[in-house]
Amino acid sequence: MRRATITGWGKCVPPAVLSNADLESVMDTNDEWITTRSGIKERRVAHVETSEMATVAGAHAMAAAGLEGSDIDLLLVATCTPDRLIPSAASYVQRDLGLGTAASMDINAACTGFIYCLSVAGSMIESGAIDRALVIGAEKLSAYVSLQHRPTGVLFGDGAGAVVLEATDADEGLLSMSISSDGELCDLLSVTATGTSYVEYEMSDPTIIMEGREVFRHAVTRMGEAAEKAVHDAGLTLDDVDMLIPHQANVRIIDATARRMNLPAEKVYVNIASYGNTSAATIPIALAEALEEGRIAPGANIVFVAFGGGLTWGAAAIKWGARTTPLGTSEAALPPTDKTALELLAERPRQEAV
Ligand SMILES: CC(C)(COP(=O)(O)OP(=O)(O)OC[C@H]1O[C@@H](n2cnc3c(N)ncnc32)[C@H](O)[C@@H]1OP(=O)(O)O)[C@@H](O)C(=O)NCCC(=O)NCCS
Predict the structure, then answer these.
(1) Ligand 1, residues 22, 35, 37: which to mutate, most atoms within 8 A of Cβ?
(2) pLDDT over threshold 70, residue 202
């Protein structure tokens, strides 16, 4: 049976670190609240645009798969923070990675975007429409964060992660994928002052607003359901799961999902303390780090599960292949910066005082 398997992986996190102590210095919040409510200790603030982080992560993923730009048939970038609306972030990445005439587009399913892209690219590979895809999750959420709105101002960060998917006839790869949404709940999480309806909002700068408790409640239910469905559809049992790589929005949501699946801590990958919620980038960043740390064994059964604005959710079950080390490496890196995270936030073109 023709399947889509992950053969390359990579990440790009910008260097400027925004700690909880930094936030305490500019906002009415504290490390204790942020840590106990969300599990976040620090996050990154980008000095570059979304597509530049996506390009670096994509270059590492292609090198890890041993591929050239001309080998890629399809590029999908999962993002809700593209550099511009036209061209797509994917168009910049397509150019900068030299992907020839590969099809390219952005997909916005908020924090579930990477799973949506994986599902689209995986299905196109399984159908025989394409042989190889580069799938990137990349976000610059610092553009949508207000330091005057503490409920969401402490949660989000910037970064990118990428995978290469290739066709295989081996008994490995994407075993099941499911994506869902409920538009009736679309107002629970949104970004003000963006898009064609920007004038409707009172806040003049783009700002993530969220009914936190309601989103939390839906996230716990939907992530558990989606992960269990992915396991079942793959013909596996919960005992067969070797690693859960969940969306990193709140450590309490991750813990609840793991408890429901009866998974011990060593089978759950958590890096939210270091990066906060990087939306569509969380899962590919976490996958790259899990591989770097030797947490993924050859043949491992891995479950990805995510939840986000829309509301959207989805999951995928994957049987990892034999190789857990990259075929090659890339020199790709972001340009250096001497600026601190707080300096970068203060430089943003916003009307609010920082
Ligand atoms: C956002 C979230 C961390 C907030 O945690 P919570 O326990 O629900 O907290 P609440 O929003 O009810 O706020 C509790 C109190 O903390 C206060 N508070 C809010 N943000 C704060 C901050 N940054 N620092 C200090 N206090 C804060 C509130 O004002 C409130 O005070 P009050 O009780 O005096 O009114 C949590 O709801 C969450 O993770 N939601 C889901 C996020 C998610 O899944 N997103 C997925 C898609 S991105």
Answers:
(1) 37
(2) no
